[in-house]
Amino acid sequence: MPENWTPETVLTVAFIAALVGGLLLKFWLASRQIRHVARFRDSVPDRFREQVTLAAHQRAADYTIAKTRFG
After folding, report:
1. Cα–Cα distance between 21 and 28 in angstroms, integer?
2. What's the per-residue H, E or C state across the chain?
3. Is the entire prediction scored with pTM above 0.85?
4. Is 68 domain-assigned?
5. At residue 1, does pLDDT exceed 80?
6. What's CA 14's distance to the chain center, in Å?
7. I need a labelling partner for 23 at 20 to 30 A (CA). Which of 5, 30, 54, 70 fits?
8. Does residue 14 lie within any of the structural domains?
9. How many domains, the chain?
10. What is the mean pLDDT of residues 14-32?
């Protein structure tokens, strides 16, 4: 760290680093969620087969993917 950095500069850099890190984490988690939902879109979990149709499950997966992509 340069000697001429003021405490305000250090806090600003730390804030920006935390902000960028948080955004990167958010995008990484969203991409993992989208991949997981897309991977299992075509099969209803065994526990819910009697209550949820495949069409309803796929519609929910599509909604989740769209909602995750566009907020």
Report:
1. 10
2. CCCCCCHHHHHHHHHHHHHHHHHHHHHHHHHHHHHHHHHCCCCCCHHHCCCCCHHHHHHHHHHHHHHHHHC
3. no
4. yes
5. no
6. 23
7. 5
8. no
9. 1
10. 98
